[in-house]
């Protein structure tokens, strides 16, 4: 395939988890999709927009932004200029990926990014629900510090006794003080953000300097291949309460997991669909999730350089179970696409705080050195024609603290549990 050829936005899932023995090139006919996620492939926002994990398909928002504080609507990186810069760099014996990244940076397009072959392969694996790491989620803390916000059960970090609230002072000797969260996560996974090489392989060591209260200590962990649980289903109020489905990111098979949860849910107790902190992922899986609650019809429209496209739900979804969707400032991209569709179609009540506002669509193409340019090509709209970029979605019931409790009250008014 010519290196500049744009892959058509096949609305099917990414191919499954990849091995690390060789870079996987974009191939003609590969099951690729457009991406609705944020800027750097380092982790998923969990709970609040500023938490970041080593390995999940969502990507954290730009570090210069804060929740509810958006930069101006970005320009679009020029694909021809990106490809030309990469080609000229390769001809001169330089890094095509670095040259392309410089063009993207100058463009002001805050959502486009460039991957080395190894980084893109790793991103594909994340979209399949797997990653190589130690099982830590981190967040910014007071004074420019970095704190542990979540530890994956059974991971190397969990076995070492690292706990939520511990301060992460350094990674492999590099201080985390005042460092962007994305850079810290990249070091945890084995490569500095934007580095020439992809994340490290399973078995590679990483040394962490930690602090808990007055205690300071060092742990050397060995990265391993882990699986993320991006869909968690439970009934926190017990057998008589509503089913809660928490989606952290839209990775491979998310839609199937949600459909199974809907089939098992009590029609009398209703469902809470928790999209708080969901930074996006595969649009195909967001549409599949919408299909679990809709009987066909429009989910969203989007444009690719002015060419209008549509996304439809499949028929046969459950349109009767009472549904409330929880959102917040960390709800982004494909999660906003799903929430907007359910709100516009009158299928769900949205409860929480306004969403992030990322409605840009990216599509990948291969550069001459095998790196991948994932560039913004357009924006999507909800079924009623609303734009999401920068403005986000406003919930039907705006709630700060205690959003889930209020959501249960709303759900009981819809006839679904208490």
UniProtKB/TrEMBL annotation:
SUPFAM superfamilies: ClpP/crotonase, PDZ domain-like. Signal peptide: none annotated. Residues 54-73 are annotated as: Disordered. GO terms for cellular component: outer membrane-bounded periplasmic space. One of its GO terms (molecular function) is serine-type peptidase activity. Keywords: Hydrolase, Protease, Serine protease. InterPro entries: ClpP/crotonase-like_dom_sf (IPR029045), PDZ (IPR001478), PDZ_6 (IPR041489), PDZ_sf (IPR036034), Peptidase_S41A (IPR004447), Tail-specific_protease (IPR005151). One of its GO terms (biological process) is signal transduction. Residues 120-191 form the PDZ domain. SMART domains: PDZ, TSPc. Belongs to the peptidase S41A family. This is Putative peptidase S41 family protein.
């Amino acid at each position: 395939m010519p290196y500049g050829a744009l892959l058509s936005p096949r609305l099917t899932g990414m191919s499954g988890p990849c091995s690390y023995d060789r870079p996987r090139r974009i191939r003609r006919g590969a099951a690729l999709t457009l991406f609705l996620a944020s800027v750097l492939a380092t982790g998923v926002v969990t709970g609040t927009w500023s938490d970041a994990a080593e390995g999940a398909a969502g990507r954290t928002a730009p570090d210069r932004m804060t929740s509810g504080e958006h930069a101006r609507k970005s320009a679009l990186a020029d694909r021809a200029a990106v490809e030309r810069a990469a080609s000229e760099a390769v001809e001169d014996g330089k890094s095509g990926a670095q040259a392309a990244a410089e063009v993207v940076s100058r463009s002001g397009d805050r959502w486009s990014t460039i991957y080395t072959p190894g980084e893109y392969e790793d991103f594909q694996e994340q979209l399949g629900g797997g990653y190589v790491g130690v099982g830590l989620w981190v967040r910014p803390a007071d004074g420019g510090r970095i704190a542990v916000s979540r530890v994956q059960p059974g991971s190397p970090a969990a076995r070492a006794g690292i706990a939520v609230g511990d301060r992460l002072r350094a990674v492999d000797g590099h201080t985390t003080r005042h460092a962007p969260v994305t850079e810290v996560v990249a070091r945890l996974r084995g490569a500095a953000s934007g580095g020439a090489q992809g994340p490290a392989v399973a078995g590679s060591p990483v040394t962490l300097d930690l602090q808990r209260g007055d205690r300071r200590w060092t742990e050397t962990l060995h990265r391993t291949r882990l699986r993320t649980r991006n869909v968690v289903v439970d009934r926190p109020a017990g057998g008589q309460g509503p089913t809660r489905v928490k989606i952290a990111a839209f990775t491979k098979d998310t839609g199937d997991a949600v459909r199974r949860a809907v089939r098992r849910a009590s029609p009398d107790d209703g469902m809470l669909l928790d999209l708080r902190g969901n930074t996006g992922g595969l649009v195909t899986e967001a549409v599949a999730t919408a299909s679990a609650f809709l009987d066909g019809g429009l989910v969203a429209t989007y444009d690719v350089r002015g060419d209008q496209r549509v996304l439809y739900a499949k028929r046969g979804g459950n349109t009767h179970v009472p549904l409330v969707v929880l959102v917040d400032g960390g709800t982004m991209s494909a999660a906003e696409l799903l929430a907007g569709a359910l709100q516009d179609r009158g299928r769900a009540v949205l409860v929480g705080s306004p969403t992030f506002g990322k409605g840009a669509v990216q599509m990948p193409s291969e550069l001459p050195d095998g790196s991948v340019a994932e560039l913004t090509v357009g924006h999507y709209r909800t079924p009623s024609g609303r734009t999401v970029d920068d403005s986000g979605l406003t919930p039907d019931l705006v709630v700060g603290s205690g959003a889930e409790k209020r959501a249960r009250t709303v759900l009981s008014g819809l006839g679904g549990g208490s």
